[in-house]
Structures are given as C-alpha cells and as structure tokens.
Amino acid sequence: MPAAVCGLFAVLLGLPFAGGSTPGAVDATVAGWIADLSPGVLRALVLPTEPAVVIALGVLSVVLCLRAGRRTDAALALGAPVLAILLTSWLLKPLYDRWKNDTLVYPSGHTVSLVAVLTVLVLVTRKAYVVVLSALALLAATIGLVGMGYHYLTDVVGGTLFAVAVVLLTWPVRRPEPARSAG
C-alpha cells in the first residue's frame, strides 16, 4: 500500500507542471529561502547525489545482502535502483516534459538515484540510524539541488516518491517465520 500511495503522489504532483518551465509557488518560496547559501556549501550539499556516492551505497547494499546469504535481495538491491533510474530517464521525464535550464527535470533523476539506493539500504539493514542518516542525506541533497538551480523542489519531492514506490514495489515483503509446533 505505501508503494502505491507514493507512486500515485509522484504521478499527481507532476501533472500541474507538465510541459512547463516555471516554478510553482512552493518551488519559488523554497528557492528564495536558500538563495543566500554560498556556492561552495551548495556543491557540498549536492555531494550525496554524485554517481560515485550513489554507486558506493548501492555496492554496500549488495555486499551486505551477499554476506547475509540473501542472493535474491542482492539482485534486487542492484536491480530496483536501476529500474527506477531507467523509468525516470526514459519514461517519466519525456512524459512530463518539465524543463529548467534546457534540461528535463521532473522527476529529479539525481534524487531518484540517491533515494532508490538509500531505500534499499534501509530495507537491507533495518536500522534506525540508517533511516536518520538517509533522511539527512536527502535533506542536504534537496537544499543543494534547489540552491544550485538544478531542480525545483517539486522535482525532488516527485523523484523521492517515485524512487520509494519503485523500490517498495520490487522488494519482497518479509513474512515472519511461523513458530515451530511444540507438539
């Protein structure tokens, strides 16, 4: 159910901006809040979306799965983010046709790649500190992406929702093992 809700919101959020190139009211407000941050700070905040970081996090997820003997999860840890990225680049961006600086921006591919691997890492580890660190990385990346002018806030939110939806839709639901009968 959460996957379907995230996917639906990602689809609906982009509709008002389809075919356009202007920010919405919330986009403009948030961009104004962070407009005074220095370019150096903004570049540092975008760091979590860099391919080297995203790939390293993805490899970490695969390695953790393999070390735990979870081969299917290792394949999904690799495949789910790739699927999310491909669907974003080849289907959603052309479909929504939202532009900024001569680039298709909805949903944010930077965000989809980061959030997909972070979602997998959360599912693989099931640790609260991974959830907190992931949220902080996403917050930093959001400020950086908007502040550097790469994306509008709605692009980042749409990318987040879509990435979570794809990963959750592809990830198997863990069922507790039934208790052994005593008799």
Q: Poorly predicted ranges (pLDDT <50, ≥5 residues)?
A: none
Radius of gyration: 18 Å
- The end-to-end span amounts to 37 Å
On the 0-100 scale, what is the average pLDDT? 94
Largest sheet: 2 strands, antiparallel
Strand order, sheet with most strands: 1-2
Percentage of β-strand residues: under 5%
* Helix residue percentage: 55-70%
Give the secondary structure arrangement, pairings included.
Elements: H1 2-14, H2 25-33, H3 39-46, H4 51-67, H5 71-96, E1 99-100, E2 103-104, H6 109-125, H7 128-147, H8 153-170
Helix pairs in contact: 1-8, 3-7, 4-5, 4-6, 5-6, 5-8, 6-7, 6-8
Explain this structure to me?
This protein has 183 residues and is mostly helical. Helix content is 70%, strand content 2%. The protein is built from 8 helices and 2 strands, in the order H-H-H-H-H-E-E-H-H-H. It has helices at 2-14, 25-33, 39-46, 51-67, 71-96, 109-125, 128-147, 153-170; strands at residues 99-100, 103-104. The chain has a two-stranded antiparallel sheet. A hairpin with a 2-residue loop joins strand 1 and strand 2 (103-104). Helix 4 packs antiparallel against helix 5, helix 5 (71-96) runs antiparallel to helix 8 and helix 6 runs antiparallel to helix 7 (128-147). The longest helix has 26 residues, at 71-96. It is globular, with a radius of gyration of 18 Å.
